[in-house]
Specification:
Blueprint (H helix, E strand, L loop, with lengths): L1 E4 L2 E6 L10 E6 L7 E4 L6 H20 L6 E5 L5 H4 L2 H8 L2 E5 H6 L3 H6 L6 H5 L4 H22 L9 E3 L3 E5 L2 E7 L8 E5 L4 E5 L17 H12 L6 E4 L8 H25 L7 H8 L5 H20 L3 E5 L5 E5 L3
Parallel strand pairs: 4-5, 5-6, 6-7, 11-12
Antiparallel strand pairs: 1-2, 2-3, 3-4, 8-9, 9-10, 10-11, 13-14
Helix pairs in contact: 8-9, 9-11, 10-11
The chain binds zinc ion (ZN).
Zinc ion binds next to loops.
Amino acid sequence: MEEVLTDIFLIKEKGAWGAYKPTQNIYILVGTGGNDGLIYDAGYGNKKTVKYLVAQINKLRNFFKEKNKEFNLSRLLVSHAHPDHFSGAIKLRKYLGIKIILTEKTARKLSDIKYFSQNFEASNEKVLKKKKSWFKRFKGYFLTQFGHFFFKRVYGLTLIKNPDIIIPENCEILINGEKWKIFPSPGHSSDHISLYNEKKGVLFSGDNVLSSITTWLGPPDSNLEDYISWVKEISNLPNLKLILGAHGSVIKDPRQRLKEILEHREDRTKQIEELVMKNNENGATVTAITKELYPGESRMKHRMAKGYVVLTLRYLEKNQKIYSKIDKKSKIKYFPIRS
Ligand SMILES: [Zn+2]
């Protein structure tokens, strides 16, 4: 546990298997006054992990007690409907007696496995229109079932069917008298929100801005253009001093980091466009572009990066730099548009 700023504590939940289960940052916002604190993000839902988090919170409680200061957590706010951010919520409510706060969008996604799954069923509309073979349909069904099993076992996935408080995406929240702004931050996921305190200059960015890696973006729920405009919007936040992300370390030079993210996205877009130009005769597939863009990387890295490549290709297509065709094997191929 670490006090990253006065009355803001960071508890790290250990992950496993590298990027398959990343280490998760859980923030405790005590605020001055101490009886109405907030937890930002619920982390994993595995029993052991939740117990660890509760033990850390009890340590914090004792720390405040020794100082004769009041300490009470009353609420938990979830940044977005990804399993590493909400799965611990139900157990934490039970152990700590807190109320779960969700936005309308996140609440809908977490109300039913059907809505939740829709956010992960990456598909391409063009290919979907074509009739799928029984093998492809079976493969899709198998992958969905395997996904549920994986997240249940490894992340402790637990949906939140009965949240206590539903808030709009744009609102203010009081934490022991301190005003914090909640605002929509689509990009990484459509329901993502951020939390900002202008006086302190502190932004909780969830998965949208991370210290050392670029966030995952991919269909069907991420939006590249929304993401870029959000990063630009954040760069202009008055008094921004510190970004606290859901993974990695504290970002002490936020404007520099945001600039790096924008430059990285611009470079990647250029590289992807160049790769389409290079393979102009036979067309370039998403897989081929991903492999060329990340040479020598593992299959897992390629699988994770594909989503971003797809979004960038769609962006280039929308801006009439490239066009796509579906070949006989239902593969989408991208070609340059000659001016
Ligand atoms: Zn996420």
